[in-house]
Amino acid sequence: MVYEQQQALASNYFNLGRSLAGEVAYEDMRTVDFVASLKGVDSKRIGVLGFSMGGFRAWQLAALSEKVAATAVISWFGTYDGLMTPGNNVLRGQSAFYMLHPGMPAKMDIPILPALPHQNRC
């Protein structure tokens, strides 16, 4: 998708009182639930792997799902200050909408996600 299409999609979600980031997080959680339900899968040993933007999603999934036992992230690490530098995609849209949980930046920075214990979720 180009920036304008992603912005329109994200705007529609916000106008409906939802967020694109929330939708993606929900879908990722349902994927783990599905994998855990499969025969031959040890539901206590599910791991997630993410590369680049998928790294953010892997951290987020580990923070949200008690079924995720291990997480590996390759080639992604960001803070809100770093991601909001002039010229960065986060200020133009694109991947920003997949990480934009309203209110989250006021409560914590992105590197806190993998450290969140399941019982103390935001």
Walkthrough of the structure:
The mean pLDDT is 85. This protein is globular. The chain is built from 7 helices and 2 strands; from the N terminus they run ααβαβαααα. The N and C termini lie far apart (30 Å). By secondary structure, it is mainly alpha-helical. Strand 1 (46-51), helix 3 and strand 2 (68-74) form a beta-alpha-beta unit. A two-stranded parallel ribbon has the order 1-2.
Which characteristics define this entry?
2 strands; 48% helix; 122 residues; two-stranded parallel sheet; mainly alpha
Order of helices and strands: HHEHEHHHH
Largest sheet: 2 strands, parallel
Query: What is the oligomeric state here?
Result: single chain
Could you tell me the number of beta strands? Answer: 2
| Principal-axes shape call | globular
What portion of residues belong to β-strands?
5-15%
Taking the alpha carbons of the first and last residues, their distance comes to 30 Å
- What is the share of helical residues? 40-55%
Measured on Cα atoms, how large is the radius of gyration? 15 Å
Number of helices: 7
**SS content category:** mainly alpha
Low-confidence stretches: none
Strand order of the largest sheet: 1-2
What is the averaged pLDDT score? Answer: 85
Concise structural overview:
The protein is mainly α and 122 residues long.
What topology does this entry show?
Layout: H1 3-15, H2 20-37, E1 46-51, H3 53-64, E2 68-74, H4 80-83, H5 89-92, H6 96-99, H7 104-107
Parallel strand pairs: 1-2
Helix pairs in contact: 2-3
